[in-house]
Amino acid sequence: MLQTMNTQLKVRLSLGLLTIGILLTDMIDNLYMQIALCVPVYLFVSYPVLIAAFKDLFMRRRMSEKFLMSVATFGAYGLGDFAEALAVMVFYLIGEAFEEYAAARSHNEISSLVKLKPSKVRVINEDGSEEILRPRKVKIGSRIRVLAGESVALDGTLVDAAASVDMSALTGESEPALFTKGQEVPSGVINTGKVFELIVTKDSKNSSITRLLNLIEDAAANKSRPEALITRFSVYYTPIVVSCAVLMALVPLVMPNEDYANWITRALVFLVVSCPCALVLSVPLSFFGGLGAISKIGVMVKGSIHIESLSKLKSIAFDKTGTITKGKFSVIDIKIFGDDAAANDSLKRQSVLEKLYALESLTTHPIGAAIVNYCQEQGIELKKADDVHEITGYGIKGIVDGSEVYVGKEQLLTEKLGLSVQKSELTGTEVYVVENNVALGRIILADEIKESAAVACQELNNLGIKTYMITGDKNAVAADIAKRCNISAFYAQQLPEDKLSTLQKIKSNDETVGFVGDGINDAPVLASSDVGFAMGQFGSASAVEAADIVVMNDDLKKIPMTVELARRTYALAKQNMALVIAVKAIILILGALGIANIWLAILGDVGLCIIAVLNAMRPLYWVKSKQYDIKEIAQAS
To answer: Quick check: 50 pLDDT over 80?
Structure first.
């Protein structure tokens, strides 16, 4: 954070802290020398706050928290506590610096996404030569080439027979998509197969990846931020106190027998007693204590303002891939076709896996990689496959142990081989094995659900927070995962722009809505939500930067823990505020009656500060004693 501070702010804070140290250690015991030292330093340290306070007062007709800070420090000067006056302003500026740093981090997501958008395009000229151009210089109708591993820079119609691409940047789903000739391939996807060519259909400014960038930028710009608790309170507290002091000074006008000097003195004492130093320190300290406590459980909150939003959370929506699930495929079921004896024959099962292993070991598809890993774990022998070739859009064909073997999706059997399919009740990606035109079996793979998902969602439901899942995956897959993870409702087959509109629909029903995501495609929704949670361990840089809160180890159980700590922290801040106001009110009444003197004001102010600071440290005790911890809930089967 120090790197983001400008030099002037560093000098002002350093000089302020040094002066506070000198005053507190009584290195200067002469009152006039203390004033001569403190006043210039105070003005140098606090002049931006003072200017802003009076601008708010005279231009916006509003007594903001900056005006409250000014009144607080003027009151401390009236009490003769120069060190406290300077300390209040210095620590306020430090708190503001933290808030500005967090806000800057949360709006830097665009810079990380620029890397996703390719800076060059391979354009194929009419004579067949290749020319490297910037995307904005490529015209609609141009022919472009995309090498294996490269990102597609511009939307275009596929020229080749087929192309396999990773669409996780746009949809968040880990399973690659297969495009066939004539289909439009969006920009931002990554070529996971062979070299292919496209005919450009959209220019750079209208491409899919540019639209995604614009979505994030617009969502971040339009996101409303609630005002700080102390800001809202200052709108009422400061004018009330100042008005009461003025009315007190004018009492002799309606009571002619009263002494003007006496009531003016009472009014000044009233203003001094009302010095809100304890209030101004206690509320931010309560939030900072909560931030520290939440950080102890491995969650980073980008600013105390999000503590209040967290405490008021009514619903929370989750992305699926990489958030609820691990983003990698695993085998969940193997079915051997035939009579019961054959189905239970381990040798038949081994034979099916050998044929799968032989063909899938020659592909780079993630589904194939998951099957290969499974076969290796099961100790299956790798046999040689001959005459292997891909059946575009359907699967693979080859010769294993002298037999013709097909491995692929359901459509391979029904559309190419004319075979019937035994449907499975399980939800996942199905891969069939056919030998000599006879279906031998089926293997089903699915994205693994995180162990913490069901526990976290159930605990959020217990906290009165409704849970949603918004995913780009198929309806059947979403329904299955929502049921297994105790999720209240779900929205499937959602593109980034669909996710934004869906979140807005949820927000129209619930006041404060959170969103949990990890991918580049989640960044617009994270930026738009009232509280955005990002997975910090495996989440994309753009998601982490767009979010308000980062779960560092991707443990979803930390989310209900964070909500619980935020609720207790917000309650603590209000408790501190109520305590300070109650004691201040008593002293103010006594001051108005002429009973309280300056010493009682000092005792009340300093004593309140100490009590409020000690109370603000309690969140760290909550973590130490694990008072925030959630119950272990058995995961639904």
So the answer is: yes
